[in-house]
Amino acid sequence: MSYILTLIGNGAIVFAVKLDHRIHMPMYTLLANFSFLEICYINTTVPNMLRNFLSEIKTIYFTACFLQFYFFSMGITEIFLLPLMAFDWYLAICQPLHYPTITNSHLCMNLVALCWVTAFLCYPVPIYFITQLPFCGPHTIDHFVCDPGPLLVLSCTPAPGIELSCSLLSSLIIFITFFFIFWSYTLVLRTVLRVPSAAGRRKAFFTCGSHLAVVSLFYGTIMMMYISPTSGNPTGIQKIVTLVYSSVTPLVNLLIYSLRNKDMKTALRKIQMCTKISQSK
Asked: Which residues cross the membrane (predicted)?
């Protein structure tokens, strides 16, 4: 159910931003890309996961497994988009007069493209070295996705170098982006504290708290999975954490980042009304 809701909700947001010219702004361009990423991300794991649950044959080809691993690692794009969204919010709150000139559509699209390209280039080398390892039978992955930990367990020979390099690469990306987000929200909170209106402060704190909750959920789960070496995480915990950030987090992100936004809800209602009018004709 959460899978269907995530697909419908994020798909509606992408179409709303594309069709409603009133929200053709950097903030909503980032939201649309974030929603599109969530659709791609959840489709790399959930369909195969559901097929395994409903079928007695639970197999995946070697090539398909590593393709899933690669596109699953593309979730790193989200790690790059979240700091952009935090920085955009910082500019909107802390630099409102300069915001229109700093964040133009051209710059926004270039930064988004940079996020996608960087994510595509981060993991091909580690994945290539993992594919070169000798794998012993039985070729059974004790997981519902092809992830580094379960794959390295199947190797005939220990690969501490590959495991450590994957952990260091993940740690570097996660900590740099996390501290950038933390810095942006710190400046936002400092600005909000200076707002004279108590109602304005409460509204800003509520919005900031919601966004921080999403960031904490996402970063908390990926830190548990990828910062410490994979051998240190019990398989049961790996499965639970993977399930949370691959299935639950996209739905929570949808509710917090998009559907609670007033302009976005207005755009979605407009699309809904146009759909009803078209159907009545």
From this structure: 28-46, 66-87, 107-130, 168-192, 204-228, 240-259
